[in-house]
Each structure stands twice: as C-alpha cells, then as structure tokens.
Amino acid sequence: xxxxxxxxxxxxxxxxSLLMAAIISALVLLSIGQSPVEAINVxxxxxxxxxxxxxxxxxxxxxxxxxxxxxxxxxHAGLFNIGGEGQAQLGGLGVALSSLFxxxxxxxxxxxxxxxxAAAFGAAWAAIPAYLQAKRGxxxxxxxxxxxxxxxxxxxxxxxxxxxxxxxMDPATANFPVTTQLPTLNQIPGFSLFFQKDVPANVTLLIAxxxxxxxxxxxxxxxLGFQIRAFGKSESAARYAGINPTWIIMVAMLxxxxxxxxxxxxxVMGEAGRLLGNxxxxxxxxxxxxxxxxxxxxxxxVLAALLFGFLFQGGAELGLWTKIPIEMRVVVQGLVILFxxxxxxxVRMMLTRTFGLFRSRKLGAA
Length: 366
Known about the structure:
It contains 14 helices and no strands.
C-alpha cells in the first residue's frame, strides 16, 4: 500500500484542508451577498496589519496554545480530553484565589503563584474523569463533557454567592491588586519596539511557548513520554511491556488538565484582572481543533493556535467594519475543523492516490 511522504502529511494535507475550508467559506459569503475579497482584506488588516491587531491575535493565540497542548498530551495517551473548557474555568478560580488572598509583593511572584494554582486546579478537575476511566471504565469523553457543565455551574455559584464583593451586581470577583498585574508585550524590552501601545497580549505568551517546548521534550525525550505514547498506540502491548495503565491515564490527564488550567493565567490575570463567569470563552473547545490541525505536535499546535488567533481577531474585525455578521468566524472555524478533522482522511486518501499514480508513471517511464 502506498504511503504518503511525511512532508506531505505534515505540510500539504493541512494546507489543502485550509484551502478547501477557504473556498467553502467564500461560497457561503457569496450566498449571503457579501464579498469574500473584502472579508479577507478586513480580516488580514485587522488581525495582522498593525501592532494593535497583532496584540489581540497573539492574546488569543496564547490561550489556544495552552488548550491545544492539553488535548495533545491526552491524545498521545489514547485519551480524548474534551474537558479543557471546564478545566480552564477551574484554573481561573485558582488564579483568582491566589491573586486575591495572597499579598504578593511583585508581579513575577504573583505570576508563579497563579500559574501553580491554575495548573493545580485544572489538574484536580481532570483527575476525577481520569480516575473514573482508569478504575471504573467510564468513557473519558462522556465524563469530561459532563464536567464542563458542572464546572460552569460551580463557578457561577462561587462568583455569585462567595467571591462577589458586597454591592456589586455582576457575577465576578473584585479586581486583583496592582502588584498582580502582568506586563503586556509593549512593556517587555524587545517587544516594546513593535508594540508601542497597550495590547492584551502579555508575558503569558512566553510561558505558552515555553510549555510547547516542555511538552515536546516530555513526549519525545523522556521515559514517561515514551510510556504515554506507547500506551496510546496499543494498550495491550503497553500492558505486556509492564506499563501501568492506571498510572499513565492519571498522569496524562493530570498533565492535560494542568495545561488547560494554565490558560486562565492569560485571560483572568493577564487581561481581565479579575475572574468572570465566561473567563474560558470557548478556548477549551477551540483547543481540540488546534490539536487536530497541529497533528498533535507542539510545533503544529503553536502554528494552528496562531491561525485560530487570526480567525478570532479577524472575525471580530468583520463584525465591526462590515455587514458580515461576527458569527461568520464561527462558520469559518467550523469549516476548518471539518476539513482538518472529520475530512482529514479524505484529503489524505486523495493525496496518497495522487502520489501513487505519480510513482507508477515514474517507474513506467524508467
């Protein structure tokens, strides 16, 4: 059976999938009487045409890197963690408790404490579905879906009845102390040469990129990473090799939940400066698409997160400057997910046949 070259699998398949999603998106725009050329111009200009646009694009990218890495770690263990949304929300609670109740003298210490709290709360929320999968055979997909809703309800309860300041109407915590405010990219040497005005992208971007390197090193350069990948490839073979399934499931899900929880540092501490009810903003679900499109590799996740960051910021610009509804970005995201996820095998089969015909003709000519 013909095999697709690795470079084609890594580069060509995603590019063709994106092209197909773009073509369908253009047809959708034409069907509602809008210009695809105008739409792409507005999106590119709004998301990439200025330091302001880049600031928002990189802010969204940061969140998507964390949630994409969370899905990636679980995937390599053969687990489909779609509970990143709930784990990120609980991570936000950890950030809020750390920022409000510990008198940090400097933002660097506050960042370290909030990151530890966010990862711990996210990991703890993922630990329950992991235990149910490892010890009771409950399907991880079902339990993580359920825990998303439980997390949302629990967070609203905490914000309304426990952490909401007296006299405040909206369900949110008090503003975090000034000493917990993270520096934005325009305040960081080097980045300030390009970002000369306030932007939401902050120092958490550097942490997200560092975590991508850490995940790569963990999965492909450590014994634990080998065990995770071996278990994900074949549970029976891993058992025969002496790998403990319960240990791998628990560790992989704890790491996954911790990464999802870290996302909250970006938007709760770095941008909002307080915990809100919708703090995750769907980033946990977008992380699934980011991981799929990034082929569950940290480098691919970073690139896919940048693409979805562009779609988020570009879609917002469409809603501001054109008559195209902002919901169009959801359509585009759905199409990208459709072609890079559900229809990925179709694209792969088409390319495999094409390369097979090319090899046959080349052999025949020889």
